[in-house]
Design a protein that fits this description.
The chain has 8 helices and 13 strands. Helix 1 packs across helix 7 and helix 5 runs parallel beside helix 6. It is globular and about 55 Å long. The C terminus is likely disordered.
Amino acid sequence: MKSFEQPPALNLPEGQWALFLDIDGTLLEHAAHPDAVFVGEELRNLLGHIERRLDGAVAFITGRSIPAVDKLFHPLKLRIAGLYGLEHRLTPSGPIDAADAPADIAALADEIEAELGSGKVYVERKGPVLAVHTRAAPQLLAPAIQLVEQALARLPKGYRVLPGNAGVELMPLEAVKGAAIRRFMDIPPFVGRRPIFLGDDTSDEHGFEAINEIGGISIRVKPNGPTAATYALDDVTGAIAWLEASFETSAVAGARPAGKQAATESAAKLNIAATASSGR
């Protein structure tokens, strides 16, 4: 068992950091439906400010598709790996390296939707990734996992099942956040920097492992079980406050007032979790 410490102060020069961010559960509170979340101007200002300070070395690493993220954060565009790394946009204005949607996954989505038969369960079709959201009907999480695991045996080789806190996903084996992070770390402006990754769910664990191997800083938000992350934060509010305090963003337009008091207020909100873990 290991007790986590709070994330350390970022005492390296700005040009030596690279920042990778999960979205749902890390920067935004989860909602029953993925489209029900909202990004405020303050969060966009915060991320834009950090991206400028790090000379562009900021990327989303998310299970959402890239078009869905662009719509959510409009007009802000960052570098991004979508669908757990199956999609990439290596520069904010660059092309999207997208993934195809296999017919067998689309058919499976229809089957699971009919089997669960609940308007409270949302079956999300994300190209080669199938997500079953049960946040609005937690009693259906176990049946949903069972259905997806049974379907795995009928699919071609190369898929895996990833249960989460409030749903389950079926995805190709190569859909791992750690590989997406490593891809960014091999290109400018990330190459040669020390990486930081904030995430909140089981899908982020491979990313934490990759960050640890590189010698970076891995932070899990509101952990509720074993994790490979070295540090932990209580919740979304704490994660945003840590970013504000670390990158001195209180002077950003639309954010909190500048000055020592604002930094103190941000630090006071951190509420770092000292959690126990056996690793993963």
